[in-house]
């Protein structure tokens, strides 16, 4: 029996429709660059993750609410763990991941668990790519068709003990309550997992930056509002694909694109594509983007403002503008007393005013401020 572990439901759903790829499918549903990772594994860890994910989904958002309870999230994690505890029932296990931060952290967690079964290593395979010849703007395996995924399956590579051990080491560093193990990895090439070094650097950049106290994602959001791109080829490509799927004339896609770009206001869809255009390896999902927008707009000194376009709450027609405080934050010009007090997690590190670790872009390391 085969087991396919994927980076989410999109790829899992396509594999389930394939006539060539057989077996069970396990979708790894977690956003590991954000929120508490209080241990490498265990029930306390899973409960903390479930609580954080549920709280995030309950935040105000212009997106349709996802109707899922915290208990259902915990049960999903429990089902995942039950599969991991019985890997010996499978004669082939294939991991399907891509190059970005979101996937590489999930891959590290998967490898941590697979490393407990090194006697089965000849049955472990990895599919992990960062581009595809047939896709102009490759953001992940979800961009591919079923037939393209089937070709990737034929090209799968057997995992090595070295890769299992490195994945285990990375995951333990992410789960540590200090970033010092991560700092050690940041200075190494990590060649056996070719996308991992860049992903870990990107993870470290989600800590507050030494110069302005913003994470890199928050910086990109504010930059996108301060100086939005005047051309978004990814958006045009998406609109063309949508028109083709609906059997419409491509000229309609061109018109929609021009209408969006001619407007001064920045709505969620345009902001999301703007971020994808400037992020080297896009990983941020729409729910997590709205989480960041909620945070930046609800600070005591708000970094961005939301125009609800006559509505009393968030919706897809709301537009976003950077505030004067947001401009000052980008420039690193806020006084210490104007900056928000930190209280969030990056992996196993709880970042607070008393435990304030930040990214030093010159040293390319995480440093503690006293």
How would you sum up this structure, described in words?
Pfam families: DUF1835. Residues 3-121 form the DUF1835 domain. It comes from Agarivorans aestuarii. InterPro entries: DUF1835. The protein has helices spanning 9-17, 43-57, 70-84, 101-114, 146-154, 161-175, 180-186, 196-204, 216-226, 233-245, 250-262, 268-278, 286-298, 324-331; strands spanning 2-6, 24-27, 35-36, 92-98, 124-129, 157-158, 266-267, 304-307, 319-322, 343-347, 349-352, 356-360, 365-369. The chain is globular. The protein folds into two domains: 2-204, Rossmann fold; 216-341, no CATH class. It has 14 helices and 13 strands. A five-stranded mixed sheet has the order 2-1-4-5-6, sandwiched between helices. A three-stranded mixed sheet has the order 3-10-11. A three-stranded antiparallel sheet has the order 7-9-8. With 370 residues, it is α/β, with parallel strands linked by helices. The model has no long low-confidence stretch (mean pLDDT 94).
Which class of the largest domain in CATH terms? Alpha Beta
The overall strand count is 13
- Average pLDDT across residues? 94
Outline the low-pLDDT stretches. none
Rg, alpha carbons: 21 Å
User: What structural category arises from helix and sheet content?
Assistant: alpha/beta
CATH architect. name of the largest domain: 3-Layer(aba) Sandwich
Count the domains.
2
**Spatial shape:** globular
Please give the alpha-carbon distance between the first and last residues.
54 Å
Kindly state the percentage of residues in helix: 40-55%
Work out the strand percent.
Answer: 5-15%
Order of strands, main sheet, comes to 2-1-4-5-6
CATH topology assignment of the largest domain: Rossmann fold
Largest sheet: 5 strands, mixed
Order of helices and strands: EHEEHHEHEHEHHHHHHEHHEEHEEEE
Number of helices: 14
